[in-house]
Amino acid sequence: MVPGALPGRAEGVALKKALLALVVLLVVAFCSVPLPARHASTKLPPGVHGEGALLAGAAQVRIKLGDHPVLAGYAGSRRAREVQSPVYARALALEAGGSRAYIASIDTLLIPPGFSIPGCGFLAATHTHSGPGGLWDSFAAGFAGAGRFDQEQFEAVRSALQQAIDEAGKALAPATLLIAGDEWRQGPSRPRSEGPIDTGFLAFRLQGAQKPIATVIDFAMHPTSAPRDVLSADWPGVAASKFDEPLLVLQGAGGNATFDRALNTDQLGTQVAQKAQQLLVKPAASQASLAMDCAQRVVDLPAPQANRHVPWIFRRAFANLLALGFAPQAVETHLALGPITLMGIPGEPVGELGLRARPRVLVSLSNGYMGYVETEDRWNKSLGESGRTDFGPTLARALDLAP
Q1: Could you read off the pLDDT of 84-138 as tens digits, one per residue?
Q2: Which residues pair with 336 in a beta bridge?
Q3: Separation between Cα atoms, residue 155 and residue 152, nearest integer Å
Q4: Distances in whole angstroms, Cα of residue 179 to Cα of each of 106, 112, 203, 216, 280
Q5: What contacts 26, CB < 8 A, 6 or more positions away?
């Protein structure tokens, strides 16, 4: 026996036990103690105000992807077996009285960190669940539905967005704003959980001297009709294909809005396009000169909170994981164009919150993402979309969607 061997082994065993005890202590703490609050300093572009003759310019740029791109929309890692329809980045530049704002959209699931527009305005996802993924540099976000991060695909999408914005800004020309809206109760949108859906349908067009410059639709209906294993812009892409000018599809308060399962992707998109075209034949308002205001505010989010579908013993750990994954703040955007005001929410509010927000028109999935937004009452009862929320019952209040 070598002298001192046994004491050395004993010391090693003691060290392993101490390390194990420390690990257990940390795990217990993570599962039982809230993480300290984080603070972020979000810098926002200045708001804009302009009044006078309206100028508008628009562009759409196809996103150049490989034959089997990474997809976003469902949990796990997926690549497309084929390209069913092209996907685009679209941008609309608006100017009045020397002030400019932008509305832009991307045929994808969510707007990831690192994507933005110049100045004030909206950058929104059409929310297709069969669109290009790989845009979030996060393993957790990728596995949860955003798709495994792909640097080349990230750059392709961002490049198309930047090109669309640049071309829209260079194409500014005199325009007339045509506005039409309707309560589309007989449309293809359907509730998928407790609570009403918002069936409001807003369409507005920027009409040039000879032809339309761009058309914008705001309507709440989840684009989940395309197959899960193909690249597709879903029904927003079909609707866009029915217009000669760029069509920007914005999601309304669609957190609890699905579609009529008797209809396929082509039928859904065609119905939406026809509705907009019919309404714009006789618009409710027409303005070649107007007041335009755009402003953004930083929203301090409530602490992440596991919903009641998570077993109580895991709720603190789940909430702490959410706290690590989400930023502590979000950005809310208000854009007023003459008589209409668009309110951008970086999440998916349910229909009742869209109804409460009126006459403001909600633009979901705008300038980021922080999950679903359910009413406080349904969250407390574990109803509606509460099982998909991450910030507890007071999120709607923080976003100025509830009293």
Answers
A1: 899 999 999 999 999 999 999 999 999 988 899 999 999 999 999 999 999 988 8
A2: 293, 341
A3: 5
A4: 23, 30, 6, 10, 7
A5: none
